[in-house]
Write a structure and sequence with these properties.
Strand content of chain B: 15-25%
Largest interface: A-B, 43 and 37 residues
Helix content of chain A: 40-55%
CATH superfamily of the largest domain in chain B: P-loop containing nucleotide triphosphate hydrolases
Distance between the termini of chain A: 17 Å
Number of strands of chain A: 9
Number of domains of chain B: 2
Number of helices of chain B: 12
CATH architecture of chain A: Alpha-Beta Barrel
CATH class of chain A: Alpha Beta
Order of helices and strands of chain B: EHEHEHEHEHHEHEEEHEHEHEHEH
Radius of gyration of chain A: 22 Å
Distance between the termini of chain B: 36 Å
Shape of chain A: globular
Strand order of the largest sheet of chain A: 5-4-3-2-1-9-8-7-6
Structural class of chain B: alpha/beta
Radius of gyration of chain B: 22 Å
CATH topology of chain A: TIM Barrel
Largest sheet of chain B: 7 strands, parallel
Order of helices and strands of chain A: EHEHHEHEHHEEHHHEHHEHEHHHHHHHH
CATH class of the largest domain in chain B: Alpha Beta
CATH architecture of the largest domain in chain B: 3-Layer(aba) Sandwich
Shape of chain B: elongated
Largest sheet of chain A: 9 strands, parallel
CATH superfamily of chain A: Methylmalonyl-CoA mutase
Oligomer: heterodimer
Helix content of chain B: 25-40%
Number of domains of chain A: 1
């Protein structure tokens, strides 16, 4: 395993940048210093706060609140039953309805969720959905159609990154191979019918949250990216036809310079892989575009106001690292989903960085610092080493089956927990400068009747739909799943007929089966 | 003998945040505990049921979803039904302060570790288990319920003295299921349980897994994941033993555990050993009959070797769907011909991973009249 304790050369003056010559120009290959020559001087990042709780009405209200306060794009957090393709009346898990995000059962809920919001550009909507991404995407497309927004210009992202689910986030439904096929279906569909949509957001965020190091986050995410490019090409797509629409999603953790370096190393690494390994020609295929979220796992339940400072530093690292969009965590998130007040402070944090701090005046303003360039080189090398190992195993799917990335992350997580317990790694308020008195902050309460209300609506939708038509469209999904045809259209059809997410996922499961995680001692 | 803590860990519901639980699992094993963890999305009824059968000291639930009240209640109710509320219920994750008292009072939660607080760092958690060794009993007084049996086996493996209850148990049979790593012992045991159940036999199962040689802790429960379908069968009890330094392929307490199972009325006791090497033959001393499970790719030379190859009453060639067994069968029969034994061991061919019980059914038919 990679050693957590960093070995920094004592005398950086002697450090020779490996890529100094190549990396000197922002906006030029290999884009170490940014994908645009002027970066934020020309266009700020998109301030995009991930939000969702309770019912579609609750979340719609939160969306509008954020837009009123200057947010530029929406980002939807779904509840756990939705993330796992289950309905709100699920016997085993229905009790989790609306607790960790917004509950969506049918198109009806989507209509309420985006009520009064124009889906035409410049609006862009991000949906954090993976295993059943195809279902929520289909619902969104039908919704857009109903609201008169053209698919051709529709902007947004679905996370749709199933590999990191098996590696870190652990919210899967189907086995790996059919899940990858659903992703290829979406790539293919988007390249034809929704060319402005980002069909995937290849995510390191969750890998880091699960306890990885920065190097592992970078390595496994980029290697996942390679797997997706291969998947698209196997489907018969030309690399330059879909690679420009691949986007990434990273964590911004607490080691300030290491994080900036990680973003820079990621850009350089991806550009080279796309050019050398996949022979991409379109510069857009080589440009790593990414969203950042500050690190949820660094937030602490004690002295929660300190989390504002943590988030500020992490957000600054993301901006200095050249992110295209950013979510800043709220200070109360170690305790609950954020309150309106808390999320406003988080958004204001971004606005202060953007409009007051002056860091947007130059592209890659900290580039060419010896320490930063050293870290950038080092992280690129670490990632390359891992990528080579995973290539040797036969690719990421094989590596996941062997539990390789999972075990590497687990070791790193244990290592960090031990360092925190011993005090070797200082966490202010937790293992140093502790206070006996716990500070009280207001917490968000989820309506305890949320499940009841949601089930009531679900039953109403079911009673009001043409059940014969719905059943037929569900059968069609199972049938097409067996033939290997592209599944986006049949699922759009089922969504249009108000089939539930649970019904659609079941129709797929009948053919695909379920994923079972091997237990790795 | 120092008491070993046995703890069943679980994530509740759909919550996939398993960073914490994996850290706890790894560090408790390093502390020398025996830890069960069955990955995500397990039904908590199952978790409580397993804790009872395994004579566990603690159930540790990790919950970040906000649904803690519902899930804790589920575990509490099942423990209550088993009269096993002395199993310590521990919570970790995001639990609001206002719920802590409620959970402790209403459901007897013993300890709550809230993420991101100094009270929940790894040392605090380790210290808790150093100071709270869990359940003990002074003597085995009853073996009527699964809770009694689980607790009794845990107690004797922690050194509680137990007199031999009886010399022999007419009508019962103790079968050893042994063989090298990966031969399919657990899936075969699952099928044996199913077959004996169709004959209306009560089946006790003891599966043995190795303890870590450095820390003497152990990850347990892998074997029983293959036998999950029997969890709620009132006539099946599965208990997992760790070797705790014992060298012969079983744990020191194995014989006594089998004795307890027989005393509790189980007609058939299946003992699944660890994946054994050539000299790990201790099962021979405690089982009435030994089933040696092999894959058919075993070489002719191996069959004639001393040790494990010579203790079988039944040679089971498993995974015959993947590897043609004819050669191995022929070689084993030749070996047995040469030995000219009074009771000649039999050779069976099975596919323990198949949906049907072919092969296993014939095997059980053969064994059953001997009870």
């Amino acid at each position: 395993m990679e050693n957590n304790k960093k070995k920094t050369p004592l005398n950086l003056r002697k450090y020779e940048f490996k890529d100094f010559g190549n990396s000197n120009e922002p906006g030029k290959y290999p884009y170490t210093r940014g994908i645009h020559p002027e970066m934020y001087k020309k266009r700020l990042w998109t301030m995009r706060q991930f939000s969702g709780f309770g019912s579609a009405e609750n979340t719609n209200k939160r969306f509008k609140y954020l837009l009123e306060h200057g947010e530029k794009g929406l980002s939807t957090a779904f509840d756990l039953p939705t993330l796992l393709g289950r309905d709100s009346d699920d016997k085993l898990y229905g009790a989790e309805t609306g607790l960790c995000g917004v509950a969506i059962d049918t198109l009806k809920d989507m209509e309420i969720l985006f009520d009064g919001i124009d889906l035409n550009p410049p609006m862009s909507t991000s949906m954090t959905i993976n295993a059943p991404a195809i279902v929520l995407f289909a619902m969104y497309l039908v919704l857009a159609e109903k609201k008169g927004a053209d698919w051709k210009t529709l902007r947004g992202t679905i996370q749709n990154d199933i590999l990191k689910e098996y590696i870190a986030q652990k919210e899967w439904i189907f086995p790996i191979e059919p899940s990858m096929r659903l992703i290829a279906d979406i790539f293919e569909f988007c390249s034809k019918y929704a060319p402005q949509w980002y069909p995937i957001s290849i995510s390191g965020y969750h890998i880091r949250e699960a306890g990885s190091t920065a190097g592992q986050e970078l390595a496994f995410t980029i290697r996942d990216g390679i797997e997706y490019v291969e998947t698209g090409m196997k489907r018969g797509l030309r690399v330059d036809d879909f690679a420009p629409r691949l986007s990434f999603f990273f964590n911004s953790h607490s080691d300030f310079f290491e994080e900036i370096a990680k973003f820079r190393a990621g850009r350089r690494l991806w550009a080279r892989i796309m050019k050398e390994r996949f022979k991409a020609r379109n510069p857009k295929s080589m440009q790593l575009r990414f969203h950042v979220q500050t690190a949820g796992c660094t937030l602490r339940a004690v002295q929660p106001e300190n989390n504002i400072i943590r988030t500020t530093l992490q957000a600054l690292a993301a901006v200095l690292g050249g992110a295209q969009s950013l979510h800043t965590n709220s200070y109360d998130e170690a305790l609950c989903l954020p309150t309106e007040e808390a999320v406003k402070i988080a958004l204001r944090t971004q606005q202060i960085i953007a409009y007051e701090s002056g860091v947007t005046k130059a592209a890659d303003p900290v580039g060419n610092s010896r320490y930063l360039e050293y870290l950038t080189d080092e992280l690129e090398q670490k990632a390359r080493d891992y990528i080579q190992k995973i290539d040797a195993m036969g690719g990421m799917i094989e590596a996941i089956k062997r539990g390789y990335p999972q075990k590497e992350i687990r070791k790193a997580a244990l290592d960090q927990a031990e360092q925190e317990a011993s005090g070797e790694k200082v966490i202010v308020g937790v293992n140093k400068h502790k206070e006996a008195e716990k500070l009280k902050i207001p917490l968000l309460e989820i309506d305890p009747a949320i499940q009841e209300k949601q089930v009531e609506r679900l039953n109403k939708v079911k009673a009001g739909r043409d059940s014969r038509k719905t059943a037929k469209s569900l059968e069609e999904i199972s049938r097409q799943a067996e033939t290997g045809a592209n599944l986006v259209s049949p699922i759009i059809n089922a969504a249009r007929n108000y089939a539930t997410i649970g019904e659609i996922c079941l129709a797929l499961e009948k053919v695909f089966g379920r994923y079972e995680e091997k237990i790795f001692d | 003998m120092k008491k070993k803590i046995r703890i069943v860990l679980a994530k509740a519901g759909l919550d996939g945040h398993d960073r914490g639980i994996n850290i706890i699992k790894d560090s408790l094993i390093n502390e020398g505990c025996e830890v069960f963890y069955f990955s995500l999305y397990r039904n908590l009824d199952d978790i409580a049921e397993i804790a009872v059968q395994e004579g566990a000291d603690f159930i540790g639930l990790s919950i970040h979803s906000g649904a803690h009240k519902k899930y804790v209640e589920k575990v509490f109710e099942r423990l209550k039904n088993h009269n096993a509320l002395d199993i310590g219920l521990i919570l970790g994750g995001i639990i609001p302060e206002k719920d802590e008292e409620f959970l402790k009072e209403k459901f007897g939660v013993k300890k709550i570790f809230v993420s991101g607080t100094p009270e929940a760092d790894l040392n605090a958690i380790k210290n808790f288990f150093r100071e709270n060794p869990g359940r003990t009993i002074a003597a085995i007084t009853a073996l009527k319920t699964k809770n009694d049996v689980g607790l009794a086996i845990s107690a004797i493996s922690n050194g509680l003295e137990m007199e031999k209850i009886r010399e022999n148990w007419p009508g019962t049979l103790t079968l050893g299921v042994t063989g090298p790593l990966g031969a399919g012992k657990s899936s075969l045991t699952d099928k044996l349980i199913a077959e004996f159940r169709t004959l209306d036999k009560k089946v006790g199962v003891i599966t043995v897994d190795p303890s870590d040689f450095k820390t003497d802790g152990a990850p347990l429960g892998r074997d029983r994941t293959q036998m999950w379908r029997h969890l709620y069968d009132s006539n099946v009890h599965i208990y997992s033993l760790a070797t705790r330094g014992c060298q012969g392929g079983i744990a020191e307490a194995t014989a006594k555990a089998a004795e307890i199972m027989r005393a509790a009325g189980y007609d058939i006791v299946l003992i699944e050993t660890i994946g054994v090497g050539q000299d790990q033959t201790a099962i021979k001393n405690i089982a009435d009959k030994v089933l040696l499970v092999l894959t058919p790719d075993i070489g002719e030379d191996q069959i004639y070797k001393s040790g494990i190859m010579q203790i079988a009453d039944y040679y089971i060639l498993n995974k015959t769907d993947i590897i043609n067994p004819l050669k191995a069968e022929k070689h084993i029969n030749e070996m047995l011909d040469q030995k000219n034994l009074n009771i000649r061991p039999l050779v069976f061919k099975t596919i323990s991973a198949a949906p049907n019980n072919n092969g296993v059914r014939e095997l059980v038919k053969e064994i059953n009249p001997r009870i």
